[in-house]
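Bump. Still looking for Diphthamide synthase domain-containing protein structure tokens.
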Amino acid sequence: MNLVSLFSGGKDSTYSIYKAKQERHQIQCLITILPLSDESKLLHFPNIEITKLQSKSMGIPQLYIKSESNETEIEESLLEEVLKKAKSEYGVDGMVHGGILSEFQKNIFEKACSKLNLKLISPLWHKDQIDYMKNLIESGFHFIITSVSSDGLDETWLGKEINLEDLSKLEQLGKKYGFNVNFEGGEAETLVVDCPLFSQPLKI
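Sorry for the wait, here they are.
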């Protein structure tokens, strides 16, 4: 299937591309929407500009647009508009995204895809937190933490590339402070600096 990826540059959207390609799907283009601010409930805000470098390293063309509003309805309309463009210009049959738990986001994506007769692919949906993070690291994904917003995660985690030892620490902290180890609840934001999809790593 020819797919477009909803791409933010973080670990989840990047790994979802990797999993889709493993399942023999072809990623024809990326969609990246820059929200008006970090108050968007639907879209990813941090480090979005860097996705242009990641797109180049993956050799996948990118449809990059900016939203003029944080209102979900307007962002949803913008997503439909750019999906329509991806379908007409790249002949995509579906969209892959990196959602794990958010029914809110998934329902909106399904609605947008349904209007255009596109299939929504969700390779990470309801994956076990620890198993997912281990698979991510063991598959050669190098990602750093770019922001933290949860009790138990202090500034020492900023800029840190997460390895299996760090994951063990995160698991302990997650149990103590009650946060998601995969950061699905927004406890931290990540940026992929290298992975098997990249022709060359990012230098941050």
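The mean pLDDT is 94.

Edit: fixed formatting.
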